[in-house]
Design goal:
Belongs to the LysR transcriptional regulatory family. By secondary structure, the chain is an alpha/beta fold. The protein contains 12 helices and 12 strands. The strands form 4 sheets. Strands 4-3-5-12-6 form a 5-stranded mixed β-sheet, sandwiched between helices. Strands 10-7-11 form a 3-stranded antiparallel β-sheet.
């Protein structure tokens, strides 16, 4: 079966807007053109994708399944188009920074805003992503500066490594808050919210419990520190979290305590070795490193 991208794009737009008119406006083509693309798709797939209800097109269950796959394709191409646009429009007055999600919900926006305060003509390109993707972006020249978690996949960066200490987050009102410092022995019966098994905080926490000879009870596995903290706030368990996620969360519902032995998170600020930094990028790099060093851990046992 040979499906055309334009058919999938029209289908995606109809699901999102609920009407042929809305899809036509979103894609900038005629309503008959949208209807024709949908008819072609239904004919090729031999699936009924919509029912009409009060002037709107309601997706069938089959359409719901198809949309989950199509959504990834359509949004992925949108990201490619944006990447091409960013590469085409790079300019000396543009700050280009990428960071992992943990730094993107408060730390980095505040730092960029402070940097931009006396630079009114500066434009900003900022994205948050997983660390491997950030390395690819910096390598490709899409971003001048990246912050990512170690390890580095490519031997093509100038890097500055900063280790930050995680803190144990407890649900508000937890009896464990009476302790000034928490250890594996005190936490043996507690359910943990954790990042995936390949994440450095997962491995290092597991090692701390193994070294103490204490069982480690993991209850929820997820992929973002922001999600980890949300589960703690819901009372699902405790978690070791980076200070950025904790310091810039204003919803409350948790308290923090030091954990010993300390579990460290290794971050790297990277730039491409193959490209000189712009003057603007160099200035921001200095500001970023100064700010990150305020979070740098002093190794403790």
């Amino acid at each position: 079966m040979s499906l055309r991208f334009r058919q999938l794009q029209a289908f995606h737009a109809i699901v999102e807007t609920g009407t042929v008119t809305g899809a036509a406006e979103q894609l900038g083509i005629s309503q008959p053109g949208i209807s024709n693309l949908l008819s072609q798709l239904e004919r090729q797939t031999r699936l009924k994708l919509f029912e009409r209800s009060k002037g709107r097109l309601v997706p069938t269950p089959e359409a719901g399944v198809l949309f989950q796959e199509v959504d990834t394709v359509v949004r992925g191409l949108d990201h490619v188009a944006q990447a091409v646009s960013d590469l085409q429009n790079k300019q000396a007055g543009q700050l280009q920074v990428a960071s992992p999600h943990a730094l993107s919900f408060g730390f980095m926006p505040k730092l960029i805003a402070r940097f931009a305060a006396d630079r009114p003509d500066m434009s900003i390109s900022f994205q948050s992503q997983y660390s491997t993707k950030i390395q690819e972006w910096v390598l490709a020249g899409l971003f001048e500066i990246g912050v990512c978690e170690m390890p580095l996949t490519y031997d093509a960066f100038d890097s500055h490594v900063v280790q930050v200490e995680t803190l144990l987050a407890l649900p508000e009102g937890s009896p464990l808050a009476r302790y000034d410092v928490l250890t594996p022995d005190l936490l043996a019966p507690e359910p943990f919210i954790v990042m995936g098994p390949d994440h450095m905080t997962h491995r290092r926490t597991r090692e701390a419990f193994q070294h103490a000879g204490v069982p480690w009870h993991t209850k929820v596995h997820t992929h973002l520190f922001k999600n980890v903290l949300s589960f703690v706030q819901e009372g699902m368990g405790v978690a070791l979290l980076d200070p950025f996620s904790l310091n810039f969360d204003h919803q409350g519902g948790f308290v923090t305590r030091p954990f010993r032995p300390a579990v460290l998170l290794d971050l790297a600020v990277i730039t491409s070795r193959a490209r000189p930094l712009s003057s603007l990028g160099s200035q921001f790099l200095d500001v970023l490193l100064d700010e990150l060093r305020l979070y740098a851990a002093t190794r403790r046992g």
